[in-house]
Design goal:
Helices cover about 55% and strands about 15% of the residues. The protein is an alpha+beta fold and about 300 residues long. A hairpin with a 2-residue loop joins strand 2 (about 190-195) and strand 3 (about 195-200). The longest helix is centred in the first third of the chain and has 65 residues, at about 55-120. It starts with a helix and ends in a 6-residue tail after the last helix. Pfam families: Guanylate_cyc. It is found in: Membrane.
Length: about 300
């Protein structure tokens, strides 16, 4: 602004000074006398008429030229600032859209993880993300089959197509699932439900087994889980009218093979003689009790379960 004010006032040091007109005539006379008057006789009259008439005219032309330069410079600065502002706004919008899409993708990923973790255990899902296949052999895996033996007696398809009774079963299985969220049952995994039978196992996570102080802790954890299931159904029966559900559990441990079957619709399960024996312990057991094999007693007796 100071520079522009100097321009408009005529005091800018870059402008030529106004010389005294008389002094200028004197110097011109001396110059002509020194070099001869004939040197100027060949100058065209038309060219002389195009020259500024005085120093004031020359000064005015300089002022206008510099003023135009300053104005053009200001326009250029404005255009550059405008381009910078447009670029900044575009960058801000792009970052906003990118962050919004990133949050959306993360939300979809969390939903996908939640779905897959409800189909297969988390440690199995992590392996599937790396190898797309899963099959492992494990020793000393504990298995239970817990059946609601009198559910078919309660189920009546003629009443709302059986939906109300399936709702009751869903609530009970949901209560069993909530037990799995407790820290003391973190080594227990739900395998599947078959009708009104709930199947679970422990000792299928190799990393977790390495962290155990006692190599048999997971065996006792599954027995504690079975006892907790009995407590859950006792509390559940208090809310039922004129009917009590009966839970029967078969327990066993041994060597098993765990695997995921299928490419599009994943199916996680375990196989082995220990699984078959646990199933028979359930089917041949006593209602309201937990039946175990003889070879399990030596381990479970240490925890005073019997």
């Amino acid at each position: 602004m100071l520079f522009i004010c100097l321009i408009l006032s005529g005091y800018c040091p870059c402008f030529p000074k106004k010389y005294n007109h008389n002094a200028s005539n004197t110097s011109d006379t001396n110059f002509i006398n020194e070099f001869g008057a004939n040197n100027f006789t060949n100058t065209s009259n038309s060219n002389l008429t195009n020259l500024p008439e005085s120093d004031e005219d020359l000064h005015y032309l300089y002022d206008m030229e510099i003023l135009m330069d300053v104005l053009l410079l200001l326009v250029l600065v404005w255009l550059l600032n405008r381009e910078f502002e447009i670029g900044y706004r575009l960058s801000f919008h792009a970052n906003f859209v990118a962050n919004r899409d990133k949050i959306h993708v993360q939300h979809l990923k969390n939903q996908a993880d939640w779905l897959i973790y409800n189909i297969v255990p988390e440690h199995v899902a992590d392996q599937l993300k790396k190898n797309a296949k899963y099959s492992e052999n494990f020793k000393n895996v504990a298995i239970i089959f817990a059946s609601i033996v009198n559910f078919n007696e309660m189920y009546d398809e003629s009443y709302l197509g059986g939906k109300e009774f399936l709702r009751v079963l869903n609530e009970l299985i949901g209560d069993f699932d909530e037990l799995l969220t407790l820290p003391e049952f973190r080594s227990v995994e739900k395998i599947k439900t078959i009708g009104s039978t709930f199947m679970a196992a422990s000792g299928l996570n190799s990393t977790m087994r390495l962290e155990q102080e006692d190599p048999n802790d997971h065996l006792c954890a599954l027995m504690d889980f079975a006892i907790a299931m009995q407590n859950v159904i006792d509390n559940f029966n208090r809310d039922l009218l004129e009917f009590n559900l009966i839970l029967r559990i078969g327990y066993n441990f041994g060597d098993v093979t765990a695997a995921v079957i299928g490419n599009t619709k994943l199916y996680y399960d375990i196989w082995g003689d220990a699984v078959n024996i646990a199933s028979r312990m359930d089917s041949t057991g006593v209602n309201g009790r937990i039946q175990v094999g003889e070879h399990c007693l030596s381990i479970l007796e240490k925890k005073v379960y019997f």
